[in-house]
Amino acid sequence: MSRLGDLLQTERIRRKMTLKQVAKVAGVSEGYLKDVEEGKRIIADDQARRILKKIGLKEHNEEGFTLDDIAATVDLQTTTAPQAVQPVRAAKSTETTAVYQSKADDQMVTGGIWLDALSSVLKRVPVYNAVMKEVDHKLLPIMDGRIEGAAPDKVYYLSSPDDSMRGFRILKDDHCLIVPSNSPIDGAVMLVEYNQHRYLRKVKKLDALHVLLQSYDREYSAETCALPDVNILGRVLKVEFSI
Questions:
Q1: What is the DSSP code (8-state) at residue 59?
Q2: I need a labelling partner for 7 at 20 to 30 A (CA). Which of 23, 72, 79, 156 fits?
Q3: 3-state secondary structure of 138
């Protein structure tokens, strides 16, 4: 099954709609929709969006997730196809059959319920450029109400503006995950504000009042700064890059 096929089936089941009902409101054939859900036919992104919106899924939800975000994460959860649901034992009466059907329905919508609570398990984390303008975003998991130990709304990515940290394995356009910190951490790569500019620098604490800000492009460079002159903005916790 494709991601968009998964999402279409999940949302249809969650809304207790039949293939025929969805096909009617979306203006497509029931057979076409069935093939899409089963992964036998590829559906274009814009067509999937149109169908999803027809059955009530908003383009953006309150947390800022797009249909693309949801489709990209739908395979993180298990959605159970109707034919895969089997009772534990044979039903002996109409009433028992109804109980099994109810349990089967619950099992089938498990993959859909999480869409309503997406913001409780994932956070749309912005990617900023050097002037702190959002240029992209990434979805990160929330664990125990935190992302990497920090408040979810406080973390963000910074796209490295240059190769000044090349020697510390951070290249231009790498995405650095920043967690808040307002004091220097010895040996850490940190985002600092100095001389009215923001920099990524490796920090070395010299004493209670001075730090060494280190960079390494084609050669190593370091500058001794008084702590009152440096604004510590956050710590680089990890770096992501594209191949």
A1: S
A2: 156
A3: strand
Q: What is the pTM of this model?
A: 0.59
Question: Which of helix, strand or coil describes residue 34?
Answer: helix
Tens of pLDDT along 171-198?
999 999 999 999 999 999 999 999 989 9
Spatial distance between the Cα atoms of 87 and 143, rounded to a whole number of angstroms? 34
Report all structural domains of the chain as residue ranges with CATH numbers, in order of start.
Answer: 3-116 (1.10.260.40), 123-240 (2.10.109.10)
Q: Are 192 and 199 in contact (CB under 8 A)?
A: yes
Full 3-state SS string of 161-229: CCCCCHHHCCCCCCEEEEEECCCCCCCCEEEEEECCEEEEEEEEECCCCEEEEEEECCCEEEEEEEHHH
Separation of alpha carbons 79 and 9, rounded Å: 9
Which is it for strands 231-240 and 189-194: parallel, antiparallel or unpaired? antiparallel
Alpha-carbon span 127 to 171, nearest angstrom: 16
By the 10 Å C-beta count (0-12 exposed, 13-18 middle, 19+ buried), 20 is classed as exposed
∠ CA 164-140-138, rounded to 5°: 55
Contact 68, 54 (CB under 8 A): no
